[in-house]
Amino acid sequence: MFDKILIANRGEIACRIIRSCQRMGIKTVAVYSEADNDSLHVALADEAVCIGPAASAESYLVVEKIIAAAKQTGAQAIHPGFGFLSERAAFVEALDAAGLIFIGPAVWAISAMGDKIESKKLAAKAGVNTVPGHIGEIADAAEAVKISASIGYPVMIKASAGGGGKGMRVARNDEEANEGFRLAQNEARTSFGDDRIFIEKFIEEPRHIEIQILADGQGTTLYLGERECSIQRRHQKVVEEAPSPFIDPETRKAMGEQAVTLAEAVDYRSAGTVEFIVDKHKNFYFLEMNTRLQVEHPVTEFITGLDLVAWMIRVASGEKLTLRQEDVTLTGWSIEARVYAEDPLRNFLPSIGRLVKYREPVAGEKVRIDSGVTEGSEISMYYDPMIAKLVTYGADRAEAIAEMRRALDGYYIRGINHNAAFLTAVMAHPRFAAGRITTNFIAEEFGEGFDGRAMDSALTDRLIAVAALIQHRRELQNTDSKVTQGSVGARQMVVRLDQEAHTVLVRPTATGVEVTFDGLQLRVEGAWLPGEPLFEGHVGTAEVTVQVDARGTGFTLTHDGARVQAQVLRPRVAELAALMPIKEAPDLSKFLLSPMPGLLVSLAVEAGQQIKAGEELAVVEAMKMENVLKAQADGVVAKVAATPGESLSVDQVILEFE
Q1: What is the C-alpha to C-alpha distance for residues 646 and 649, in angstroms, rounded to an integer?
Q2: Which positions of the chain have pLDDT values less than 50?
Q3: What phi and psi, each to the nearest 5 degrees, are found at residue 50?
Q4: Cβ atoms within 10 Å, residue 182
Q5: Which residues, in sequence order, are CB contacts of 43 under 8 Å at separation 6+?
């Protein structure tokens, strides 16, 4: 077994690998860029080595710097995590030459499976089901259009070296194929240094289901069940679960056996994942093989009880698997939600900045948080926007969902925008609860974007009651008041939630308040005091967590995916407040604003140019993704306010229109 391992990665995955090493008694070495100097993975490791500037191309992707850090610290092996160098055959070759052990598969397997074009050819030869399409390099956009039309729309345009949703576009006509090829090629070149593109048939009503495999390279290859990864946005996974609510034992066995067949065809060793696309009739087709640890591996660990990182380390050190296929059991249900630094209210655009306030839910037997941040950490534009992975477990799917909703309520993040409310809305959606999901779920159910979860009567009632208790406690703490818990009698108040007024009768109790309104009487109990970010208590018999943020004379309440502005006023004050005018938002229709912090890659127009609605105006790159900004209406460009290559802040003016 190894004495010391270097982790060639950052963030939550580096922290997760370090924790497994600590349990195994193995010392760890972290590498970090200048931007990650104060990162959690640096603090957790036994040693840390700075390997260069913030840009990953000058630090985490520089093979020579990784090897030098390993030599400097005496590390015997290197775990790559996911992303960065994890699937670079040249990296493994360099480690071999330097006498270092790569914790992962051999060069041949990485080379064969890392190229999506070659991997599909190999899969077909091995008898694995494959998607119809053009498996070969494509010269230019014109050829892409021709091939797409011959396959039959819709088609999927994909980067051969792609992953994580980058370099991927769906095209439903010639125009989209032309644009999709160009954008996918640009993203592939920027993200992977490889702009080769292939095209395949897009499966309608698809589910993205993957099989986790584990092999020791000494004759034993296992499949560890499946993961449902169909909740995606822009081809980026958002929610994953294990097992799948769609797959039956017979289909699981068939998919698992094909995954094992493919792994054995490339003499696979270590943990890996074979991804399939599955149609509504449970026909499944090979997509790709990821020759590394997957982001969503915790859900498999929850239901199998296996530590995949530990097994990767054991296999790399020469140990054989002690399990047989019949020893693999799937118990209970697990769901993972990716908590991203992004703004769902602005079409999920990236959000960067400092975590001014950061409090994770309480971890335990049913809740796991894989994060690489702490309060005060910086979310940088240089790296992936994922803050953490929130993973829950239950005896069945319903319990795992309920645990996730409770945990999301208790996840307190301030200083940047994040997607926790959106994740709750997904969990609460009837279609998700029923397991009727496809990769189109978000596009179909949130096609107009996300503007917060709609308030139903039960949610409104809970927040009215909590608002009454909060105001009661604020009054008790008012040093200018003679009010005490025992001296206050019942009184009438008006609770305003987003300007909607509700008249309530508030009666103090020994541990909270009793709130009566609309023929309903709710008892609210909890130990909340002014200044605390979370109300944790009961409304009636329900256990409730509500996030509380002071705002002027009122406060913001966040609960179960909903976010409302609340005020609790005396009746006469409420009457006067209702007469106050509401300030109108400024007209910004004459400007093209950068919707996110990022790099202005290109401008397609100039001053004085006439434009048509839908026409491309600019491309802004943020967190390795290119975003095309298009005209919302016909007009004329009056002024160009930014230049290509310029770093933009959010809402910075790019163009002004007449």
Answers
A1: 10
A2: 485-486
A3: -80, 135
A4: 17
A5: none
Q: Both tokens of residue 332?
A: 């209970």
> What is the per-residue burial (b if ≥16 Cβ within 10 Å, else e) of 604-617?
ebeeeeebeeeeeb
Pairing mode, strands 27-32 and 47-50: parallel
Its pTM stands at 0.83
From residue 46, alpha-carbon distances to 33, 312, 379, 410, 644 in Å are: 17, 20, 24, 31, 43
Torsion of CA 312, 317, 320, 325, to 10 degrees: 0
Collect all residues with Cβ–Cβ distance below 8 Å to 580 and sequence separation of at least 6.
none
Residue at token pair 């992303």: 83
Residue 531 Cα distances to 100, 223, 256, 273, 607, angstroms: 52, 50, 52, 46, 51
Closest CA to 616 of 605, 607, 626, 600: 605
Distances (CA, A) of 56 to 14, 62, 381: 15, 8, 11
SS (H, E, C) 217-280: CCCCEEEEEEEEEEEEECCEEEEEEECCCCCCHHHHHHHHHHHHHHHHHCCCEEEEEEEEEECC
* Residue 12 is among the residues annotated as catalytic for this protein: no
Q: What is the pLDDT of residue 624?
A: 64
Phi, psi angles (nearest 5°) of residue 450: -125, 125
Compute the distance between CA of residue 593 and CA of residue 611 in angstroms, rounded to an integer: 16
Q: Which of 210, 288, 360, 621 is catalytic?
A: 288
CA–CA gap between residue 515 and residue 572 (Å, rounded): 19
C-alpha neighbours within 13 Å on the C-beta side of residue 163: 25
Q: Which DSSP string do the residues of 443-491 spell out, in sequence order?
A: HHHSTT----PPP-HHHHHHHHHHHHHHHHHHHHH-TT----TTT---E
Residue 134 has φ and ψ, to the nearest 5°, of -100, 105
Helices (H) and strands (E) in the chain, counts: 17, 39
Q: What is the largest CA-CA distance in the chain?
A: 83
Say which residues have a Cβ less than 8 Å from residue 241's Cβ, sequence separation at least 6: 227, 228, 299, 333, 334, 335, 336, 397, 400
CB neighbourhood size of 2 (10 A): 18
For 296, phi then psi, to 5°, come to: -90, 15
Angle at 55 between CA 185 and CA 30, to 5 degrees: 120
Q: For 43-88, write each residue's pLDDT tens digit.
A: 999 999 999 999 999 999 999 999 999 999 999 999 999 999 999 9
Q: How far apart are CA 420 and CA 434, in angstroms?
A: 21
Determine the Cα–Cα distance for residues 77 and 351; give it in Å rounded to an integer.
35
Structure tokens at 240: 């994953």
Asked whether the beta carbons of 66 and 44 are under 8 A apart, the reply is no
Which DSSP string corresponds to 346-390? GTTEE--EE-SEEEPPPPSSSEEEEE---TT-EE-TTS--EEEEE
Q: Which of 84, 95, 33, 30 is closest to 58 using CA atoms?
A: 33
**Secondary structure element (H or E) that encloses residue 7, with its range:** strand 4-7
Answer for the pair 413, 420: CB distance below 8 angstroms, yes or no: yes
Structure tokens at 227: 């993961």
SS3 of 8-53: CCCHHHHHHHHHHHHHHCCEEEEEECHHHCCCHHHHHCCEEEECCC
Q: Which residues are registered as beta bridge partners of 534?
A: 547
**Which residues are CB-contacts of 500 (< 8 A; sequence separation ≥ 6)?**
none
**Angle made by CA atoms 413, 417, 423, in degrees to the nearest 5:** 75
Per DSSP, the residues of 267-334 read T-EEEEEEEEEE-TT--EEEEEEE-S--TTHHHHHHHH---HHHHHHHHHTTPPP---GGG----SEE
Q: Give the integer Cα–Cα distance in Å for 114 and 629.
A: 32
Going by their DSSP bridges, the two strands 500-508 and 512-517 should be labelled as antiparallel
